[in-house]
Amino acid sequence: MNAPTSNSAQTQSRKADHIRICLEEDVQFHQTTNGLERYRFTHCCLPELDRNDIDISTTFLGKHLGAPLLISSMTGGTEQAGTINQRLAEVAQHYKIAMGVGSQRVAVEKPQVANTFAIRKYATDVLLFANVGAVQLNYKYGLDECLQIIDMLEADALILHINPLQEFIQPRGDTNFKGLLDKISKLCGQLPVPVIAKEVGNGISAPMAEKLLAAGVRAIDVAGAGGTSWAKVEGERAENVLQRRLGNTFADWGLPTAECITSIRAIAPNIPLIASGGLRQGLDVAKAIALGADIAGLAMPFLQAAVVSEAALYDLAEVLIAEITTVLFCTGNATLHQLKHSGSLQRIE
């Protein structure tokens, strides 16, 4: 068996492990929270609104969204993952919300699984994000591979996920992160679609966001701490005591999502900003928007619903939309723009 086939088998196996572990094991942050519990909305007892006048639609990267929601990047590359992605794409299309897929590296290494990412036929006109690890730019990936990944999805943008902690703990992880910023900058100048920089649950600080934006990245997904701990996930996949110990030690490592939003927004008032990391309900989404995010990404809630049934996914989307709408109604804001500038979200001292 040649090296590429071996690598693709390992990558495919890792994808299956990730789904199983996220669904079956306790891999959530325990001590570090997303930080949103430190904020509350000021209730408006007389909103002077008709519920029918509330509009939670928005635009992101020039595309209309029915709600400020992103089905965050999760999976692909296995039969189960293909079913999950199809269900997620159909829900994204129905509610006109954005969707990202998991890393498409597996489909570059093993083209026969590319169909598990080919969701444009189910999400014909919604905002779709392709995805690959930024570190792969140091492992023989370049413009051609990124174009292949974008074309596979017919994507509107490319997510470069940045995951040093996960790679460090992961068995046989890719840990050469040297010189990546220059390679990201070069890639941003060559691609026909915008590049989004995204962490995977440990957060992006304002200084790092500043460097990424200067390199040509068009949007930031903070992917802060407080949700799924990928240190824990990789600790569950450990092949030795050292890897398991690292997973436990760094289980709560990272910057809270709320902190990432406010610090990045302070240095980049107008950059398209995605809040993700431990968001579990529409109230979290509304808080993230009020703090300065443009849209909010959720992964675990959508994954849990997707493995149950299509009906469970539609129920989840309805609940999230109702929760966001409730916040607007009970703060006296008819639109997300009004909510963001209303001052109705207060930090609890």
How does this model look, in words?
By secondary structure, the protein is of the alpha/beta class. It has 14 helices and twelve strands. It has helices spanning 3-24, 79-95, 105-109, 143-153, 164-169, 180-190, 206-214, 230-236, 241-249, 257-267, 282-291, 300-306, 310-331, 336-340; strands at residues 39-41, 58-60, 63-65, 69-71, 98-100, 128-133, 157-161, 195-198, 219-221, 273-276, 295-298, 345-347. The strands form three sheets. An eight-stranded parallel β-barrel has the order 4-5-6-7-8-9-10-11, surrounded by six helices. It has a two-stranded antiparallel sheet with strand order 1-12. The protein has a two-stranded antiparallel ribbon with strand order 2-3. α4 links the parallel β6 (128-133) and β7.
Please write out the topology:
Layout: H1 3-24, E1 39-41, E2 58-60, E3 63-65, E4 69-71, H2 79-95, E5 98-100, H3 105-109, E6 128-133, H4 143-153, E7 157-161, H5 164-169, H6 180-190, E8 195-198, H7 206-214, E9 219-221, H8 230-236, H9 241-249, H10 257-267, E10 273-276, H11 282-291, E11 295-298, H12 300-306, H13 310-331, H14 336-340, E12 345-347
Parallel strand pairs: 4-5, 4-11, 5-6, 6-7, 7-8, 8-9, 9-10, 10-11
Antiparallel strand pairs: 1-12, 2-3
